[in-house]
Amino acid sequence: MRAIVVGAGIGGLAAALSLRRAGCEVTLVEQTARFTEVGAGIQLAPNATRELRRLDVLDAVVAHAARPSHVSFRTWSDGAEICRYALGREAEEEFGAPYLLLHRADLHGALAAAVPAGSVRLNTTVIGIDQDDDSAHVTTATGERLTADVVVAADGIRSPARQWLFGKDEAVFSGTAAYRALLPSDDVTDLNLPPLAAWLGPDRHFVHYWVRRGELLNVVAVFSTEATAQESWTARAEPGEQLRAFTGWDPRVLAVLERAGQVLRYGIYTRAPLTRWNLGRVTLLGDSAHAMVPFQAQGAAQAILDAAVLGDVLTDATPADVPDALDHYARRRISAATSMQAASAQAGKDFHLPDGPQAQARNARMAAHAAEHRFLPQAPAWKTDVPDRQPEP
Ligand SMILES: Cc1cc2nc3c(=O)[nH]c(=O)nc-3n(C[C@H](O)[C@H](O)[C@H](O)COP(=O)(O)OP(=O)(O)OC[C@H]3O[C@@H](n4cnc5c(N)ncnc54)[C@H](O)[C@@H]3O)c2cc1C
Predict the structure, then answer these.
(1) Rounded distance, CA 126 to CA 6, Å?
(2) If both were cysteines, with which of 13, 33, 36, 80 could 75 make a disulfide (CB 3.0 to 4.6 Å apart)?
(3) Cα-based distances in Å from 240 to 25, 218, 221, 243, 249
(4) Which CATH number fits domain 2-170+271-373: 3.50.50.60, 2.40.170.20, 3.40.190.10, 3.40.50.2300?
(5) CB-CB contact of 114 with 60 (8 Å)
């Protein structure tokens, strides 16, 4: 079985590893000249780290991670704790895998290191995908035509492949944007911050957590806005913009935002849910299939789950089995990922409620949920019950 994976983000790398494990000969094609990930943090819940263990990369990832004892939800104005969930060793025992906080470059580097260099084609932009009954073909910008039994398009939120397969549709602005920063942890020691926290306020929420074994603090300050913002990991905010946007917030939040100095500004986009991800021998995976707002910290986790299921359905498959196997993959993954897209959007609305009865009811609901459950559910939702794995159809 020959497989081509287009895109070497977290989804594409996980797919390459999972397909190799399933016995496929994999070519991973990436447009950038070298493996890259941005300087930002990422949380990985046990539903994803469990699959990283199956891919034999969990130890390499854990070596770079911070492991939070708990997550704390707080009120924007005075930092009063709404609720907390345990995420440490007991939670790991409960879910069979750890909750990790990572620098993206560390996660990406650990996944990339596990893919043999001979399987990777960097500096190769895909400009077309087509197929016949027996195989699928990828055309590159230099006119080369690569052939395989299965093609996986893990080409991200702006996925050209999604358009080639299912026609034109665009990424949709979510009405939210985020200020982002990474600070040396020494710069904020005096603030006595919890290992992972989300502060909730009107039209805004503020998330911070340690990454790189606690050496850095990752900060994401989300705000609602009608002005469409650029989806860019490198666009800079105006000096001091973040402080003006969070005026009146708890002094610890303002101290972090001030000490962050020049912050970056990221416009948050999504993709509309699809009812199909696959066509014949070609399928979408990760953000190309289900880009979501990041308010449940599950976008990359869902891409890793896609990769795991894809490997499962193609284990022991022959080239003739591929179209049916991809149907099976999509049936197992679409409803779970689509539910997570909805749950993430709902979390954004819940986080941004105005002060008053609605926010009070939310806080009471969250506190009751945490008191009853103690651990963050696999898919951390207190409103929507989202399974992390679909039962076999
Ligand atoms: C602010 C923010 C915070 C987030 N936090 C979390 C979190 O805490 N936890 C979590 O699980 N998720 C989180 N996410 C979501 C997560 O970042 C994404 O879901 C995930 O990175 C998507 O990975 P991907 O591999 O599908 O796409 P991408 O990372 O976008 O990779 C796509 C790759 O395809 C390549 N490519 C594109 N077109 C072509 C082409 N034509 N030819 C060749 N190569 C091509 C690109 O160069 C790129 O390398 C967050 C997202 C944001 C915006």
Answers:
(1) 7
(2) 80
(3) 51, 18, 13, 5, 15
(4) 3.50.50.60
(5) yes
Å from CA of 104 to ligand 1 middle: 10
How many angstroms does the Cα of residue 371 sit away from the middle of ligand 1? 34
Ligand 1, pocket residues at CB < 6 Å: 6-12, 29-32, 42-43, 125-126, 154-157, 160, 178, 220, 266, 268, 286-287, 294, 297-301, 303
- Dist. CA 8 → ligand 1 center (Å): 9
Instruction: Give 234-291 as a DSSP string.
Output: SPBPPTTHHHHHTTTS-HHHHHHHHHT-S-EEEEEEE----S--EETTEEE-THHHH-
Residue 314, classified by CB atoms within 10 Å of its CB into exposed (0-12), middle (13-18) or buried (19+), is buried
Atom of ligand 1 nearest to the CA of 8: 49
Counting residues of the chain whose pLDDT is more than 90, the rounded percentage is 86
Q: At what angle do helices 46-54 and 299-314 cross, to 10 degrees?
A: 40
